[in-house]
Amino acid sequence: MEAVEIYVVQLMHGLVYGMLIFMVTSGLTLVLGMMGILNITHAAFYMLGAYFGYSLALSLNSFWLSLLISPLIVSGLAVIIERFFLRGTYGGGHIPQVLLTFGLFFIISELVRLIWGSTPLRLAEPALLEGGISFMGRVFPIYRLFIIGFSSLIFLAMALLLLRTRIGVIIRAAVSDADMVEALGNNVPAYFVGVFAVGAFLAALAGVIAAPLLSVFSGMGDQVLIDCFVVVIIGGFGSLVGALIASLMIGQLQAFGSLWFPELALVLQFLLMVVVLVIRPTGLLGEEI
Amino acid sequence: MSRNRIYKITGAVATVFLLLVLAPKFLPEMKIHLATEIMIFALFAVSFNLLYGYGGMLAFGFAAFFGFGAYATALIISRIPAMPLLLTLAIAALSGFVMALLIGPLAVRLKGTYFALITFAFQMFLYAIALKWRDVTNGDDGIGIARPDLYLPFLGNLSMAEISNLYYVTLALVALGIIACYLFLKTPLGNSIMCIRDNDVRSSFLGYSVYLTKVTVFCLSGFLAGLAGGLFVLFNEFVATNCIDLSMSFLVVLMALVGGTGQFLGPILGAAFYITFQDWVSSLTQRWWLFIGALYVVVILYIPDGLISLFKSERIRLFGNRKRG
Amino acid sequence: MHTILKAENIVKEFVGLKALNGVTLEVYEGERHAIIGPNGAGKSTLFNIITGMFKPSSGKMFFRGKDITGWPAHKIARAKISRSFQIINVYPKTTVYENIRNAVVSKFNRRFNWVTLLSRDQNIEKESNRLLDLLSLTAARDVLASELSHGMQRQLELALTLALDPELIMLDEPTAGFTRDESHKVVQLIRQVTEGKTLIIVEHDMEAVFSLADRITVLSYGQILATGTPNEIRENEEIKKAYLGRKGNGTGA
């Protein structure tokens, strides 16, 4: 029954990565649904979260504090970016927006490289979560269980917020039809900034949490960008549930992919994207409604 | 366009060309070096703008074709030393074309951000291969090459180690590529590409095959980008993963935008500006990327039509190919 | 009477909505055939299926006996079925001449020609000028399409539709947005340019319909209520009740 254990372990690993990706893409898909822009800079928030997390953990000597503060910093930065950069492009159509978010993503990546250097950095997991639990004759790292548990809590909190509160109702409505919601007297732009900021917060949070597991390196942004893109394509924009399902799929693909074809992680990502796009291409002329 | 204008423009271009031909006679070697680099990126930027400005398709992974052309060139030069230089460069261009043919049929079905990102994913995919397949590409250590000689009848073996020789070869090929591109846009096919950019729905109801036309312009852009990549390796005497990574993809977007994507000459100006600017700023500070980044943001927010729009006194319509009066 | 277009049991379903529920229709060569019906009847859907914008969920479409079911728009256009758009759909940032020329390039099958200079092509130039003249657009030759008056834009819209020398001309509410007088002029123009050709016109303007059409098809809730000459339709009790009872002019209720 050895094989079963391996699969279970990989399943868990896949779950871990899937939940991380979900945390990152949740904000992205809501922003996409509300404003129609795929905010490429979002992937940089994930990266910044990890790097700030690293530095804060080092200087404050506490993982937990950095887990709290790093996302706050990134979130603040996100608000500044939205206010001073993105807002200038709202009137001009999607292209300037997309160009800007792409540029910002790149610029932030370079800044990170400039400030922190190009060598991968190591952020250690907190002492509390070190070690492993015996499970089915194998040792499963506590930290990974923590990731699964923590991100599930986040998902629940988001679900509650969106389903049970008035704010949530407005956000969901705005994803469907922002103009109408605004016409009904709600300050949609303000909600948008809020969603933007919270999305960035979650992405950065994911970055910090992922750091002990995936290490902190300058190519983080590029990698997660592709995953985000795949998730959004498969899951559909504006749909959190879609993002969740797609993220879990990606997670499993990564896990089993690295088991069976370790060198080819990116190949699989890419192939998945190709397959999805072949089945559901968007923007074909003559496409039915 | 009035006859007068045609004469003026031809005159201006001829003058510039003459200057370019004479340049190595009176410029110091460093400047010739710089000029060669500018020409290579001018071709790269023009090929990008063929796809974006004229084709209406914004690609964030355009370095895929440049980089693949670059690697193809380096591999040929290092492994098949007897291959004539011009043939090598032709293969570089063809490599770009083939890569575009591989991803084009799928990518072109997408619009907007999705198109941009799938080209990016494709480029990252190629980047990963370049990085991991050390046996062939040497990973991020890259492959160094020695510039092969160019054999021309009547002139014999011209050493490309001589910078002015390299300059002339680059000038000839880049000029050829750019002029071919320019003339191409004046053909019915060039017009078709712009029709589809401007109104793909109407075009298809007028009998245009949007899909085929888009794949065609995608492949032609890839062709020219591949050539630029080959020339780059010849120039640099080295290829590494930076030729096929995010920075290179970003750079070509930057150059085209800074120069101006609404005019044919815009990207050329953008390349010239960028290379010169980068050369100057990087001599001043290690943190020159910050300035590049700032430049990019400033252009998008405040000079969306690019630097070339600042030169013209009459108002230019974006993508209009036409001036009033 | 020779049938030029035949729709056989066309069904079209969108998510949650059955727009067309088994439409069978024959259009004769050389006739002017109007399709009318209340909003939501499925007129646009049928129109779009014939012209290749949509594929039918089931059913078949024949043009001159050839099965064109599911053909993409560009293939249908090349088969000499041409359409106009209800909301003006031209090339806004190019001149009237260049607009027409785009159609002419396609008509002459030169879309993929990369070895000649477009501006030097005498044949294309001649034909473009001829079409400009035909549609009285010569004076506006060098004006940008976006800067034309509404009326002129409509003319350009029509010109683009006709530029392909279509055998079957399909017009989508060509009098939309016009005043009474202007509509008369448009109808005149349509009558003129569709002489000897087959016309299918979707319209709400009953005056235009009754003055132009040789035969009328009435659509309602995705099905054909009746097809017949204007007189037959006028006398038809069922239709009178369902539709003609409203003052059908301009946009229906």
What characteristics describe this protein?
heterotrimer; B: 325 residues; mainly alpha; two-stranded antiparallel ribbon; 14 helices; 72% helix; disordered C terminus; C: 253 residues; alpha/beta; 6-stranded mixed β-sheet; 4-stranded antiparallel β-sheet; 9 helices; 10 strands; 35% helix
Major β-sheet annotation of chain A? 2 strands, antiparallel
Q: Judging from the principal axes of the Cα atoms, what is the shape of chain A?
A: globular
Secondary-structure element pattern of chain A, one letter each: HHHHEEHHHHHH
Terminus-to-terminus distance of chain A: 50 Å
Computed Rg of chain A: 19 Å
Task: Enumerate the strands of the largest sheet of chain A in spatial order, edge to edge or round the barrel.
Answer: 1-2
- Gyration radius from CA atoms of chain B, angstroms: 19 Å
Class from secondary-structure proportions of chain A: mainly alpha
**How many domains of chain A, as an integer?**
1
Look at the helices and sheets of chain B and give the structural class: mainly alpha
Largest sheet of chain B: 2 strands, antiparallel
Percentage of residues in helical conformation of chain B: over 70%
Integer average pLDDT of chain B: 90
* Helix fraction bin of chain A: over 70%
Q: Name the shape of chain B in a single word.
A: globular
Number of H/I helices of chain B: 14
**Share of β-strand residues of chain B:** under 5%
Protein model, in words:
The complex is a heterotrimer of chains A (289), B (325) and C (253). By secondary structure, chain A is mostly helical. Chain A has a single domain, classed as ABC transporter involved in vitamin B12 uptake, BtuC, CATH 1.10.3470. Chain A has ten helices and two strands, in the order H-H-H-H-E-E-H-H-H-H-H-H. Chain A has helices spanning 2-35, 42-60, 63-84, 94-116, 142-164, 166-183, 188-214, 220-235, 240-260, 265-279; strands at residues 132-135, 138-141. Chain A has a two-stranded antiparallel ribbon. The longest helix of chain A is centred in the N-terminal third of the chain and has 34 residues, at 2-35. The radius of gyration of chain A is 19 Å and the shape is globular. The model of chain A is unreliable at 283-289 (pLDDT under 50). The model of chain B is unreliable at 314-325 (pLDDT under 50). In chain B, the strands form two sheets. A two-stranded antiparallel ribbon of chain B has the order 1-4. The longest helix of chain B is centred in the C-terminal third of the chain and has 27 residues, at 210-236. Chain B is mainly alpha-helical and 325 residues long. Chain B contains 14 helices and four strands. Chain B has helices spanning 3-26, 29-54, 63-79, 85-107, 112-132, 134-137, 163-185, 188-198, 200-205, 210-236, 246-259, 266-284, 288-302, 308-311; strands at residues 143-144, 150-152, 156-158, 238-239. Chain C is of the alpha/beta class and 253 residues long. Chain C is 35% helix and 25% strand. Chain C has nine helices and ten strands. Chain C has a six-stranded mixed beta sheet with strand order 6-7-8-3-9-10, sandwiched between helices. In chain C, a hairpin with a 2-residue loop joins strand 1 (3-14) and strand 2 (17-28). The longest helix of chain C has 14 residues, at 150-163. The two termini of chain C are 36 Å apart. Chains in contact: A-B, A-C, B-C. The interface between B and C is medium-sized, with 29 and 38 residues.
